[in-house]
Design goal:
- The structure holds two protein chains of two kinds.
- In chain A, 72% of the residues lie in helices and 2% in strands.
- By secondary structure, chain A is mostly helical.
- Chain A has a two-stranded antiparallel ribbon with strand order 1-2. A two-stranded antiparallel ribbon of chain A has the order 3-4.
- In chain A, a hairpin with a 3-residue loop joins strand 3 and strand 4.
- The C terminus of chain A is likely disordered.
- In chain B, strands 1-2 form a two-stranded antiparallel sheet.
- In chain B, 36% of the residues are buried.
- About 6% of the residues of chain B have low confidence.
- The chains are: A mainly alpha, B mainly alpha.
- At the A-B interface, helix 7, helix 9, helix 10, helix 16 and helix 17 of A face helix 1 and helix 10 of B.
Chain lengths: 572, 259
């Protein structure tokens, strides 16, 4: 037993709760946890594509990818400190403000907490080696060794995240048999760690971190683009913003599937918890989420459409923009349509019932699933047109290939709409099954069209090089909107995940008996989320500024020497 | 550069404030902690009414029908040109208002307001003891009227009634008792009897699987049975909070066996 544990235990024998001046204990922990989580998502997400872009640079022998990767990593060095600081604040707040709960948690997970700290050390030093060894290990086999450090960085980070996820998912879904009378020492560690929602949260966060990292990097690039003094700088940061946005949106498209899995596991674990989440006091949260995701789709597509203006040959696709915008806006409106309305008696009389005769039809899952799948298809089409804009295929089956691609889009859209309509005429169990087929239709289209496209543009003639840097400034603000929206969305989903426990520290095991036990309404939660987002963005802006200072102090060594040239021909 | 900084900060602020505003526009639902409610003879009428308000919005689940205006008359707001329940009761029944409200809670079918279906259950089956009924009466009187309930009306001593816990409710797992207590039979006909406001329980096991019945109880808005579309939204969505797991399973088992 650690020597500090009796002290905490003694504190726990009192009221079990500490007091925090001004904002109260819950809000203090809320801010510390949320801001820590935002930084953690950033420092776990960015290394993922730092190693991918470094690999692209090595294999493709393109130094600009290596420079991009290094620039990502420089942001990490500063962000790690902030993550650790907020993590320490969170632990101190938990031990002093919620000692009874902390004793329970550390009584079960104490060993993993030591492991966590140890891994954090290893992860930090791996990062230092990775960043500061960049120029030293930049050629030949050493470069591959350096890339291996990047891979290791991801491995350590993922394990650290999985451990922390075990603690928080235990709070949501403690294993069967654990009750209020169960002593922490009687709870099996692996049993508690590998609980019902552990792996779905692990996968969901892994993907979400990549989304978040991409969005923040794109925002960084946007800021540097706006501050750029030369065309070369503008071109570089324009390209960096595009890559960040591409990664954010490409990974966002698969995120809902991880979300479905998590939701299903919550229902499987405890049906009432699922109903609380989707149909209970939290049901309106999903309308707010729909508003945010609609903004994400619109901003991401807007950025792509503006970006096409710097691509020679894109004029031929401009006529389709307004139709894609129409689909996105209609889809957004349907997705954000509530089903159950709080109305006055006069409004009930005017509507002819407790549900609106028209909106009621759009507020159900059949309509919403159809809308979101069509929005995903439209966004994929935007990416495809962007990719094809300056290419003139030379393969003799180019026309037929394009027709097949069009047919795939059409078939997928027909399946989505057809099943959406059919959903109104079947029982709910069958209707839920339809949503799976809708998703399969969209994924099949994305995979099939991409496969054809890769072959179709192989060796294609160029209609002209992309004129990187020739972007209007307003396009960069779309990237800021994306980053801010992703950050706010993370706060909202954090509230959803944590809030469905309601007045339990550990669901069904340890009740929250503090004066902050009630789960607040969305308005209150929104105020807290906004506060956390502003704290995070303020600190990120500071980190970006530090990044700029560091670059100036180093006297702008970029561009990096050709990486690929130093690697033996043929490569490993 | 300062202009750019200002623009970036403005964009960020506008975006977060927009989302905050959206979250404030929608209905504000808080998940309160189930509270311990102790009713004793030394309570003042005002304290009784306050306790009644918590019952009205909590375990009584009154607002799910009386707050929509379609299933039952409005109580907290005016109805048919008359004022809220306390005011219109006082005007119509005078000193007998207290007794009328009590009767309408324990024998609601006889007191049903013309134009509305007799779907309200005997509230003695919903609440714990007479004292809570009287607390509810005190609250209803207080809405636009005058509280005439006193501690003398409380028929049970606090020591006898004990501390009433809201929710979950009583622990019986007798499905027939639950169907009666939870007012299911106020809408769903069974054994060929009852108002046809919802699908009959007779033969429900042949129409739905146990899982479908469970979903229909916990999340009634998930689907609406054919032919009952005009009653969509009537069934409360609070059974997940009111029933214990054992009670829920007893109900599901009982209904699934009604082939």
């Amino acid at each position: 037993m650690p020597e500090w544990l009796p002290l905490v235990q003694a504190a726990a024998e009192g009221a079990g709760y500490g007091e925090f001046p001004g904002i109260g204990a819950r809000n203090a922990v809320w801010i510390a946890a949320q801001v820590h989580l935002m930084f953690a998502a950033f420092v776990l997400g960015v290394p993922m594509f730092a190693v991918i872009t470094e690999l692209v640079g090595i294999v493709g022998r393109d130094p600009k990818y290596d420079r991009l990767s290094k620039e990502f990593t420089r942001l990490l060095v500063f962000a790690y400190s902030a993550t650790a600081l907020w993590g320490a604040v969170l632990v101190f707040f938990l031990t002093t403000l919620y000692p009874r709960f902390w004793v329970h948690l550390s009584g079960i997970f104490g060993v993993t907490m030591w492991l966590y700290v140890g891994l954090f050390f290893v992860e930090s030093f791996t990062l230092y080696l990775y960043y500061y060894g960049w120029d030293r290990w930049n050629t030949g086999r050493a470069k591959w060794g350096h890339w291996g450090l990047g891979v290791l960085l991801n491995v350590w980070g993922t394990i650290v995240m999985f451990i922390a996820n075990g603690w928080l998912t235990y709070m949501m879904s403690p294993p069967e048999g654990v009750t209020a009378a169960t002593l922490p020492a009687e709870v099996g560690l692996w049993n508690a760690l590998a609980n019902a929602t552990w792996m779905p949260i692990n996968i969901h966060r892994l993907i979400a971190n990549a989304v978040f990292g991409g969005a923040i990097v794109a925002a960084y690039a946007a800021y540097r683009f706006l501050a750029a003094k030369t065309d070369e700088e503008r071109a570089h940061y324009d390209w960096m913003g595009y890559v960040g946005n591409f990664i954010a949106i490409a990974t966002l498209i698969v995120l809902p599937f991880a979300g479905y899995w998590l939701g299903r596991e919550i229902y499987e674990y405890n049906f009432q918890m699922g109903v609380t989440m989707m149909g209970g006091f939290m049901s309106w949260l999903w309308i707010v989420q729909a508003v945010l995701i609609g903004v994400l789709f619109l901003a991401a597509n807007y950025y792509l459409w503006i970006g096409m203006q710097r691509i020679p040959g894109s004029e031929r696709f401009a006529q389709y923009t307004k139709w894609m915008l129409l689909v996105l806006v209609i889809g957004w409106l349907v997705w954000a349509t509530p089903h159950t309305l709080i109305v006055t008696r006069e409004e009930v009389a005017a509507m002819g019932g407790s549900h609106h005769p028209f909106l009621d039809v759009l507020g159900v899952m059949s309509a919403k699933n159809t809308a979101v799948n069509l929005m995903i298809l439209t966004t994929f089409l935007s990416f495809l047109l962007y990719r094809r804009a300056n290419k003139r295929p030379v393969v003799d089956w180019a026309r037929a290939g394009t027709v097949v691609q069009g047919a795939m889009f059409g078939t997928s859209a027909l399946v989505v709409v057809g099943l959406g309509i059919a959903g109104y005429f079947v029982v709910d169990t069958v209707r839920i099954g339809f949503s799976v087929y809708q998703v399969i239709a969209v994924l099949a289209c994305i995979i099939g069209v991409t496969a054809i496209d890769l072959a179709l543009v192989r060796g294609a003639e160029s209609r002209g090089a992309i004129q990187w840097g020739r972007m209007p400034e307003r396009s960069q603000y779309a990237l800021f909107v994306l980053a801010v929206t992703f950050t706010w969305l993370m706060g909202l989903m954090g509230f959803a995940r944590s809030g469905i426990r309601q007045h339990w520290h550990v669901w069904g095991v340890m009740q929250d008996t503090s004066s902050f036990a009630a789960t607040p309404a969305l308005g209150y939660a929104a105020n807290m989320i906004t506060l956390c987002v502003l704290i995070f963005l303020g600190l990120v802006a500071f980190i970006f500024w530090l990044g700029g200072l560091a670059e100036r102090a180093m006297g702008k060594p970029e561009p990096v020497a050709s990486v690929g040239a130093a690697i033996p021909a043929g490569g490993p | 550069m300062w202009v750019t900084n200002l623009k970036v900060v403005t964009v960020a602020l506008v975006v977060v404030l927009l989302y905050t505003a959206v979250a404030h526009i929608i209905p504000q639902l808080e998940s309160a902690v189930p509270e311990q409610l102790t009713l004793s003879p030394d309570m003042s009428p005002r304290e009784l009414a306050d306790a009644g308000e918590r019952i009205y919005n909590g375990v009584g689940n009154c607002a799910s029908c009386h707050g929509l205006g379609t299933r039952a008359p409005y109580l907290l707001a005016g109805h048919d040109g008359a004022g809220p329940i306390g005011a219109r009761c006082l005007v119509t029944f005078g000193p007998a208002c207290k007794q009328y409200l009590y009767t309408s809670l324990v024998d609601p079918v006889d007191s049903v307001v013309p134009g509305f279906a007799p779907i309200m259950p005997d509230m003695r089956g919903q609440l714990q003891g007479e004292n809570e009924i009287w607390a509810l009466v005190a609250y209803l009187e207080s809405v636009g009227g005058e509280i005439t309930v006193t501690a003398a009306d409380l028929t049970e001593r606090a020591s006898e009634a004990g501390a009433a816990v809201i929710p979950p409710t009583q622990g019986t797992t007798d499905a027939r008792v639950l169907l009666q207590d939870q007012a299911c039979l106020g809408c769903h006909p069974m054994d060929g009897q009852g108002p046809p406001l919802a699908p009959p329980f007779d033969g429900i096991g042949a129409r739905l699987s146990a899982e479908e019945i469970r979903v229909a109880i916990l999340d009634p808005s998930a689907s609406v049975a054919d032919g009952y579309e005009q009653y969509a939204g009537m069934m409360p969505e609070t059974f997940g909070q009111q029933l214990t797991a054992a009670q829920l399973e007893a109900l599901v088992r009982f209904l699934a066996e009604r082939q």
